[in-house]
Design a protein that fits this description.
Blueprint: H1 2-29, H2 31-48, H3 55-80, H4 91-113, H5 118-132, H6 139-145, H7 150-175, H8 183-198, H9 200-211, H10 213-220, H11 225-248, H12 252-280, H13 283-291, H14 295-305, H15 312-336
Length: 337
């Protein structure tokens, strides 16, 4: 009798744990749309409620200034969890980085060679920022759900950020050059700001691991900390993107063209990443490495260094890449069943 009762209790506890796990996963599944919705609603409150008239414009410079610090914090938390001694550079890392650079050069080449202006130039700048920006922090999480290697993906996130530090300063001035600055001056300005956002977190993470073990243990013990920090940042960046759309007074045709171009670039990068990964024996990680982008960083770069309207493209990329990721995870779970 006692053994039967114990077995029943065990089953109940297992079901309870399963329900809690399902509930937790369900909440995480809704994090993206919740963040996007909150960011949009907050901007609409500032825009249409008379009591907040003018407050949004007053706060906008401060919000733009906060974004890079928040991105650096997320990268710091991510790099803290990377154990360098356990990983090494793989062949797919090299080829995916090469593909990222080639796609960026094609976009810049089209703008310069055809001397694009107006809407077409903004459209290609949007595509450029979607291919040149580094791999997303959350790419390792999605990759692990699909059966990939979370450690190798985290390493690629680091390599991708290093590549962005050097490619962005070289290519952005070719697209949006300032009348009162030389190419070298523009490149150094971009390099200075991007290196602070992308490389200082790496240096800080190594320092904390080595000399501040208590802080290191406290940060890594918080489950999914970087995921929820990213959700907060996503809400902020969504609000910025919606503001740019409302203030741009652009035609619906241009919005549709931008959304379609973002969908095309999403499909191209995921397909090309998986195609390259097929030759290197790692289709999942290679596909996520090239396809899943740090769109919050892309939006900030577009606003800061390119035509602000080009930030609409990575805003659309957020939606298309996460639709594709949701489909990938759904299909993977069905195949497991």
């Amino acid at each position: 009798m006692n053994s039967n009762n114990d077995l029943q209790c065990s089953r109940k506890q297992s079901r309870s744990a399963g329900c809690q796990s399902s509930s937790y996963k369900g909440k995480r599944d809704f994090t993206l749309p919740i963040s996007i919705t909150i960011g949009t609603l907050i901007y609409l409150v500032f825009r249409y409620i008379p009591q907040f008239d003018g407050a949004g414009d007053a706060l906008y410079p401060a919000i733009i200034a906060i974004v890079p610090f928040f991105m650096a914090l997320i990268l710091f938390v991510t790099f803290l969890k990377l154990q360098v001694r356990d990983v090494r550079i793989r062949l797919w890392h090299v080829f995916i980085l090469f593909a990222q650079i080639v796609l960026s050069l094609l976009c810049v080449g089209a703008i310069v060679f055809f001397r694009l202006e107006g809407g077409m130039k903004v459209l290609f700048e949007g595509m450029l920022i979607c291919v040149i920006c580094p791999s997303a922090i959350a790419a390792s999480v999605v990759s692990s759900k699909l059966g990939g290697n979370i450690t190798e993906m985290t390493l690629f996130t680091l390599l991708s950020n290093i590549a962005a530090v050097f490619t962005m300063p070289l290519l952005f001035p070719l697209v949006e050059s300032s009348a009162d600055q030389t190419f070298l001056q523009s490149a150094l300005i971009v390099f200075d700001k991007t290196v602070k956002i992308l490389m200082l977190p790496l240096a800080a993470s190594f320092f904390v691991k080595r000399f501040v073990p208590r802080l290191y243990n406290a940060v890594v013990s918080v489950k999914d900390l970087n995921y929820y920090l990213w959700a907060i940042l996503l809400a902020v960046v969504t609000g910025i993107t919606v503001r740019n759309i409302f203030n741009a007074h652009i035609a619906g045709v241009f919005l549709i063209a931008t959304a379609l171009s973002a969908a095309f670039v999403t499909a191209l990068q995921f397909w090309l990443g998986r195609y390259i990964g097929g030759f290197c024996g790692d289709r999942i990680d290679a596909g996520q490495g090239l396809g899943q982008k740090n769109t919050t960083f892309a939006i900030w770069c577009a606003i800061t260094y390119l035509n602000p309207l080009s930030s609409i493209a990575p805003g659309c990329y957020i939606l298309t890449q996460n639709i594709f990721n949701s489909w990938q995870i759904y299909r993977h779970e069905r195949e497991k069943m």
